[in-house]
Amino acid sequence: MKCIFRTTIVLLSTSMIMLVCGCDLLPENNMIEEITPIIFWSVQGGGEEDGKITISTLVPPLIKEKKRVLSLKVSLLNEGNKGFNLTYYNELKAGQIRLLFVDEAYAKRGLTRLINTVLTDPNISQRLYLVITKGNFNEFLAKHLGETDNIDYYLYRMFKHYEKKKQGEITVVNLHQFMKMLYSQVSDPQLPVFRAEGEQFLYEGTAFFDRDSMVTEIRGKDDQIIQLLYRDRFVRYLVLPDLAVTLGHIRARTRKKLTPDLSSLSIEIDVKGRIDELNSLARIEDNFQYAALTRKIERYLEENVIRLLSQMQKLQIDPLQIGELTAKPFSKPITRATWDRHWSTMKINVKVRLHLEPLTKVK
Amino acid sequence: MQAISLFRKTSHQESGFYALFLTNRIQMLYYMIVMPSALVQPYMLLAIVAMGIASQFCLYMLSKWFVTPYPAQGYQGFERLFGKTGIKILALVSLPLLLLKFSFISVSYADIMQKFVFPSMDREWHIVFPFILSCYLALFGMENMVRFVTVVFFGTIWIFFLYIPFFSVQSNSIHDLYPLIPIGPEPFAWKSLLLVFSSLSGPEFLIAISYWLNPQRKMLKYLTIANAISVGEYLFISIASLLFYGSKYLPTIKYPNVEMGRYLQSPIFERVDIILISAYMFSFLYSIALFVLMIYGASRLLGKTKTSTTRIGLIVSGCVAMAVTIPISKWFWEPGLEQAVWLDLQMWAGSATYLLFPLLIWIAIKRKARTTS
Predict the structure, then answer these.
(1) How far, CA to CA in Å, does A324 sit from each of A150, A253, A310?
(2) Contact with chain A for residue B185, Cβ under 8 A
(3) A324, B176: Cβ pair inside 8 Å?
(4) Which of A93, A273, A327, B106 is the most exposed place for a label (fewest CB within 10 A)?
């Protein structure tokens, strides 16, 4: 009797639980042969009057099959994801997405809407690299459709490689870093810029943002000099064609200091490295000449840093996160408007100290 | 079949470590849930320290209870202190509080589980499965449960080390921790102080299980160590998340410490956060089991105490708790307004019990001492 009673209770409670929770435990099908985890999305357009964007991706990733570019013209990002599923035989999963390429024209109109969509998806990791592209990215993809040509994966590996040891070779920014810069009280974000040209995908420089929209970009040598201004970066080569010098293995240590009344900023950069290449090696005969060259490079770097910073001041942007120095333990944080006012008129002193290893083994 | 007794006691070995581990784990139960809404401003770091000191005061009163001879006598001890009616009133008051705590932590945990691990699964399953496991744990009886806390403590304390890498992330700067005093544009939220205090609450439930803790004279020492570890952990995780997100970005994120786990990379697992949530489940399951046992104990005090304990009784009282929790999750847990109401309710209830129960028992001891002398 007691046994029957117990069984009834157990059965009853089990059926009650089933009733309350619904029977379908996991409504998602993740059978590996039937899904396609994509590696990137690329977003273009948005300029036309209907506001439509073109979203594209490459399938299938990492298997020896002929690749295809999927491309759709949509008004919402996730409309594109749904559309992909309808045009491709496998279900596309965004859980492995690592790269988001955004066209320059789109970035100039503001990234907030796009980023918010990506951020709210719980499947997408914060380690998503954001990249600004120029040129026709889809055409570039169309040239990499071979069976063994895993261009999407290798692009991801490239960003991962340069991110790992904080190398200043190229700017690498992931979603988390972008959001942190965007949300900071007074500073602005930055992203790398690449140009798609035929079969090639070339690093061009760094794009600077005003809040969420891209305003300008710096290239080549300027980009390398700006890399020195971040906290503790390693730069492999600093090519200075104007002086016919290449500095190598550079470790820069930068100290930035704001005066309390925000009227001037002093930046001290200690650069350690060596001369890797010199067009006029023959002319360096003694230590005096060597010191003179060092002096010359220092002056040159100082001038360029000041020029780049005054460019930022003119645009009232702060991609170097200098504004965060205004936060003090016991004083009120300043507003964006106050910072912009002070920043655009701020006096800037730059001091570069070059510690070059002596030249050896040269004739 | 051997007759079972869920509330028997066999060992009389004195050890304060069970109390230490229990206090710490119960205090750390909330860090994933409370973090998002309260600890987002840098000045909350000072608030954590302040509330840690306040909690120390409550623990001091609690330790006064452990030095008296009453806890070692179990039920008789309480009867001598409060009388038969007093105990019934206390059980009646604590039952809804226990149910609230039970429901709040199960639904909150299920929410985290659903958001990060199985987004397409119904939330109710995440309440039911842990509950079944907890019932299994609870069936081992109170004495084994109290001992099991050692395993739970060492099985979950390592989570804390996962946050060390966030101190060396490149985009960090010390300026994210400023200003240290509340002079920002937002008004200082007094409620957040209470929220921190309530998340440090929980050790007051040790009164109910003090019989199995084999109390001894040096209890204050162990309780202080536990409290210090909890405050240290809260501080550590708050500093890590402030450095990582900055005080402007942090309030927009619902579960920052899980998201931070998500950011970690491991060569073996892609999703470190899933491991983290599962490990957190350990201490969560344990406390659910403890609360089920307490609910059963309290309902026995209300009814007939003389009959022996049964498995069915425990499961039925657990199912009653489930019957409260599942409707809450299904109909009264809309994000935004309703969740805020539950958080408020839990906050007031937690703070009140943490302050009042030790105080009540302290006063009762004082009164008893006066009348007997």
Answers:
(1) 41, 18, 18
(2) yes
(3) yes
(4) A93
In this structure, what are the phi and psi dihedrals at residue A153, rounded to the nearest 5 degrees?
-70, -40
Half-sphere exposure of B277 (CA within 13 A, CB side): 24
Across the range A64-76, mean pLDDT stands at 88
pLDDT higher than 80, residue A258 = yes
Q: What is the CATH number of domain B17-372?
A: 1.20.1740.10
The nearest CA of chain A is from the CA of B19 a distance in Å of 35
Q: Report the range of poorest mean pLDDT among A10-14, A103-107, B18-22, B44-48.
A: A10-14
Can you give the pLDDT at residue B177? 85
| Strand arrangement, sheet containing A129-135 | A68-74, A53-59, A40-45, A99-103, A129-135, A190-197, A200-210, A213-219
Beta-carbon neighbour count of residue A3 at 10 Å? 7
Residue B3 is predicted with a pLDDT of 46
Q: Cα distance from A193 to chain B (closest Cα, Å)? A: 20
Distance CA B238, CA B44 (A): 9
Chain A residues whose beta carbon lies within 8 Å of the beta carbon of residue B136: none
Nearest CA in chain B to A24: B121
Confidence of residue A206 (pLDDT cuts 50, 70, 90): very high
Q: What is the total residue count of chain A? A: 363
Instruction: Tell me how far apart the 2 most distant CA atoms of chain A are, in Å.
Output: 108
- Cross-chain CB nearest to A21 (options B122, B259, B262): B122
User: What's the pLDDT at B7?
Assistant: 78
Q: What is the pLDDT of residue B1?
A: 35
Q: How far is A120 from chain B (nearest CA, A)?
A: 10
User: Residues of B with CB below 8 A from A17's CB?
Assistant: 128
Q: Which residues of B touch A327 (CB under 8 A)?
A: 175-176, 178-179
Residue A351 contacts B, CB cutoff 8 Å: no
pTM above 0.95, yes or no: no
Q: Going from the first residue of chain B to its last (373 residues), give the mean pLDDT of each consecutive group of 10, the final group possibly shorter.
A: 64 79 89 73 89 93 86 84 88 92 91 86 88 90 89 90 88 83 74 88 87 79 93 91 89 87 84 88 91 90 75 87 90 82 90 92 88 76
The one-letter amino acid at A120: T
Q: What is the ipTM of this complex?
A: 0.85
- Cα–chain-centroid distance for residue A3? 66
A329–B178 CB contact, under 8 Å: yes
Which domains, ranges and CATH numbers included, belong to chain A? 32-217 (no CATH), 228-363 (3.30.300.210)
Comparing CB atoms, the residue among B120, B180, B245 nearest residue A330 is B180
pLDDT, greater one: A153 or A288? A153
Element (H, E) at A269: strand A264-278
The pLDDT confidence band at residue A193, using thresholds 50, 70 and 90, is: very high
* Closest-CA distance of chain A to residue B370, Å: 50
Q: Checking DSSP bridges between strand A129-135 and strand A190-197, what pairing results, if any?
A: parallel
A82 CB contacts (<8 Å, ≥6 apart)? none
CB pair distance less than 8 Å for A183 and B252: yes
